[in-house]
Automatic annotation (TrEMBL):
NCBIfam families (alphabetical): sdhC_b558_fam (TIGR02046)
Name under which the protein is recorded: Succinate dehydrogenase cytochrome b subunit
Domain of life: Bacteria
Transmembrane parts of this sequence: 59-81, 110-130, 162-182, 203-224
Length: 228
């Protein structure tokens, strides 16, 4: 077995991959939320539909998509492994008596938060990603070119109160997950410094508030706009 295999099969290696995939997924969230803000543009969905077509046809974006899928799988699988290992290695009495004082609520419940986010992700992919690629999506024409009208699919979907509520609740859970995961990833990579660590913590807190809030605002905006 090579040193690479030994490294990434070790507990430390798994934590390292968790950190790297987590940071990559954080960058993905930045790109994803930036593109989705086109839903706010008052142009009948043209900009969003053009963006959706670019994201599903550009070769470079397709490669990034595959990297994203792999990152999600690695992050989830290793999270399950590390969670089980930590649970089996920690004495129950100690965990109960010391957890509240030695760690934050979200750090103690990363497994639960991650599970909720994973369930949300499956629903999200089925409702939009799957529909975009293989669903019966209406077509629309801009400047003589045909586009799948995903904007209409999104508008219709977010008229359902239960789906809007699911998105908002899931984004709150994502915020808690990110609040711990952002700082933890830098710590795992050994990027701790008396001077910079407080700034990283503040940046992580801001990120964990702003990005989930932007994601949550989209279904809320569409839902309340449809009521007018």
């Amino acid at each position: 077995m090579s040193w690479v295999s030994k490294t990434f099969n070790s507990t430390l290696g798994k934590k390292l991959l968790m950190a790297l995939t987590g940071l990559f997924l954080i960058l993905f969230l930045v790109g994803h939320v930036s593109g989705n803000t086109l839903l706010f543009k008052n142009d009948g969905g043209q900009a969003f539909n053009e963006y959706a077509k670019f994201m599903t046809t550009n070769p470079f974006v397709k490669i990034l998509s595959y990297v994203t899928y792999i990152s999600v799988l690695v992050h989830v699988v290793y999270a399950i492994f590390l969670s089980r290992r930590n649970k089996s290695a920690r004495p129950v009495g100690y965990a109960v008596s010391k957890a509240a004082t030695n760690s934050s609520w979200n750090s103690r419940n990363m497994g639960i938060l991650g599970t909720i986010i994973l369930i949300f992700l499956v629903i999200h992919l089925q409702g939009f990603w799957y529909q975009m690629h293989w669903g019966d999506v209406p077509m629309v024409e801009y400047n003589g070119e045909q586009y799948k009208d995903l904007f209409t699919i999104v508008q219709f979907a977010f008229q359902a109160e239960w789906l809007v509520a699911l998105y908002v609740i899931s984004m709150v859970m994502l915020g808690f997950h990110l609040a711990h995961g952002f700082e933890s990833a830098f710590q795992t990579l050994g990027l701790n410094h008396v001077k910079y660590s407080p700034a990283i913590k503040k940046l992580g807190l801001l990120f964990s508030i702003i990005v989930p809030a932007l994601f949550a605002s989209m279904p809320l905006y569409i839902y309340f706009s449809s009521m007018n």
